[in-house]
Amino acid sequence: MDSSEPEVLIRRQGRLGHLVLNRPRAINALSHAMVRELSAALDAWENDGGVGAVLLTGAGERGLCAGGDIVAIYRDALAGGSATARFWADEYRLNARIAGYPKPYVAFMDGLVLGGGVGVSAHGSVRIVTERTRLGMPEVGIGFVPDIGGTWLLSRAPGELGTHLALTGSPVSGPDAIVLGLADCFVPSGQLPALAEALTREPAEEAAARFAEEEVPPAPLAAERDWIDQCYAADTVEEIVRRLQAHPAPAARAAAGEVLAKSPTALKVTLASLRRARSLGSLEEVLDQEYRVALRCLEGAEFAEGVRAQVIDKDRAPRWDPPVLEQVSAARVEAFFAGLGPRELGLAMAKTGP
């Protein structure tokens, strides 16, 4: 991509407003500027009678969006800056905006859809996956916690499928995304251009239904539901790991290894976030909670160490502190959820009003 090209392409085609994430070399990772542009376009189109629906796609062949620009976040964290807090505040507002958008919001979740990419797609009203979709919330692998409304979505997935996804950080297929409640329709990737063209003249739901496969391919993760529900129903990460290690299913024991490779602190905070999200009544309340947790992650050392190991130095050998689950105290976990005072995001209050 030419550096002079915009990071978001904003197009009008017939009755369709089309937004294209345009950083293909970075798998369309979200910058703060991109979030602002997406929000401005949604504002402009909401009361435009000529726009019947909005479509979100990603440039290039690799995926819709690989998440937020974590290198920029890492540098801001090391510098003790405030740019990331502002970015997340606007990003979370955008997630809530998408979820409540009054017109059909269609997302082509083709290829990689990770982290923040889930936030700009899975909160939409018409969510399309393909045979190429690989969707995941890999935050625990970098000492972070699922955000962008991810704990709202995953806490409401059938059984404990969402808990498995959050604690392993492993991506899932398009059919599994549908089972998890993160997507609606399966459309072969080769049909996406024709569907996009149909959206310029047809109602979004009708067009998506016409192109969707009646028989969705098998969902591999859904086939593992028995051991997933049994093991991840435990109240602590330690007990979840014990159940996974003791289960006869090879996939369960493999999952235990995946979990244990992640940040012990992030794992415990993630499980607490998911369980608390189940009892919260709105996406906005969950986003407010996620903002508190995210800022506390930014202030700690785990996130910077995770990004260093996975993205900067790429030694894949993070030095977590504490290094084991048993050393992460309940008080340490609880501190992530403490109020932020004047820094609160306040989405729930803004929605309900005084």
CATH superfamily: 2-enoyl-CoA Hydratase, Chain A, domain 1
**Top CATH class:** Alpha Beta
Low-confidence stretches: none
Shape: globular
| Topology as a string of helices (H) and strands (E) | EEHEEHHEEHEEHHEHEHHHHHHHHHH
The major pleated sheet works out as: 6 strands, mixed
Please list the strands of the largest sheet in the order they lie side by side: 1-2-3-5-7-10
Number of helices: 17
Query: Structural class, judged by helices and strands?
Result: alpha/beta
Percent helix: 40-55%
Number of separate domains: 1
Please report which band the strand proportion falls in: under 5%, 5-15%, 15-25%, 25-35%, 35-45% or over 45%: 5-15%
CATH topology: 2-enoyl-CoA Hydratase, Chain A, domain 1
Structural Rg: 20 Å
Keywords: Hydrolase, Isomerase
GO biological process, one term: L-valine catabolic process
Enzyme class: hydrolase
Organism: Arthrobacter mobilis
Short description:
This protein is α/β, with parallel strands linked by helices.
Layout of helices and strands, plus pairs?
Layout: E1 8-13, E2 16-21, H1 32-46, E3 53-58, E4 63-65, H2 70-79, H3 83-99, E5 105-109, E6 112-114, H4 116-119, E7 126-129, E8 134-136, H5 150-155, H6 161-168, E9 172-173, H7 174-180, E10 185-186, H8 192-199, H9 204-211, H10 225-232, H11 237-246, H12 250-260, H13 264-279, H14 283-299, H15 302-312, H16 330-335, H17 347-352
Parallel strand pairs: 2-3, 3-5, 4-6, 5-7, 6-8, 7-10
Antiparallel strand pairs: 1-2, 8-9
